[in-house]
Fold this protein.
Amino acid sequence: KNEVEQSPQNLTAQEGEFITINCSYSVGISALHWLQQHPGGGIVSLFMLSSGKKKHGRLIATINIQEKHSSLHITASHPRDSAVYICAVRSWETSGSRLTFGEGTQLTVNP
Amino acid sequence: GAGVSQSPSNKVTEKGKDVELRCDPISGHTALYWYRQRLGQGLEFLIYFQGNSAPDKSGLPSDRFSAERTGESVSTLTIQRTQQEDSAVYLCASSLVGGTGGAEQYFGPGTRLTVT
């Protein structure tokens, strides 16, 4: 079992829909990251969080430390949101420095 | 300011040859990471540098892989005697600080390595 699991693996939505991507992890963490990988391969960090909730524009990330679960929400989705969304954790149980990644969620938003 | 840069952007090499990949982190970032992404797969940690501390090499897949970093600047990842399974995109990231708390990581564009 992977230390970080994401669901769904693939998600297709219509423009304007509210989107949720889930991430569950099995280790103790010091931080959780949400990353966006564009079709060309470039990776952008969206959020780093260790508790509660963060919001940036139409993106919202939440984390529940007790349940070892995080969600990434996209409101009013747009075709330009189409990308792979990756959850990654920094675990104090393994190495304090490395990130362990989920397999990613491929999001396609159709116009 | 300039982001993380990597060179070359693409590298095609023959099996058995050595390759060297370069990463220029954001100026002032003390932490530098190398990751690998094989086609259709997730990202894998390779190695982490933090200032002048000993690097965390725990993710290197074999002794054919090595990396160096000069102070808090450029890093090179060297793969000796390349194998076809080394074909992947090699990504470098840097952050202001490292360690357990860490900080947001900024990724370079990657080097796509193809071993024929």
In short: DSSP finds no helices and eleven strands in chain A.
